[in-house]
Design a protein that fits this description.
Elements lengths: L6 E11 L3 E6 L4 E6 L1 H5 L9 E7 L2 E10 L24
Parallel strand pairs: 3-5
Antiparallel strand pairs: 1-2, 1-4, 2-3, 4-5
């Protein structure tokens, strides 16, 4: 039997809820409850309020979903190719 099809949406995390669940507002305007996918838990990807995420949903229940990807934004503190943070010249001694 074939695996059931999933529908992917993008949205914004509005609120963190108990039991590692999130209230997500989809780009279409609907609000859903979503949980973190196992791969995101395994790789310790943290999700906070205000993050852009991709959500997978079953066509049978359009009120619940699964967070499968957290998008990186411009102000996340990640600078590709830049110097490592916290590493500067050693302090001068007298």
């Amino acid at each position: 039997m074939a695996k059931e099809e999933v529908i992917q949406f993008e949205g914004l995390v509005l609120e963190l809820l108990p039991d590692a669940r999130f209230r997500v507002k989809l780009d279409s305007g609907h609000e859903i409850i979503a949980y973190t996918a196992g791969k995101m838990k395994k790789n310790r990807i943290k999700t906070l309020a205000g993050d852009r995420v991709t959500v997978e949903m079953s066509p049978y229940d359009l009120e619940r979903g699964r967070l499968v990807f957290r998008h990186k934004d411009a102000n996340s503190g990640f600078t590709p190719g830049g110097p490592p943070r916290g590493k500067g010249p050693p302090p001068k001694r007298r």
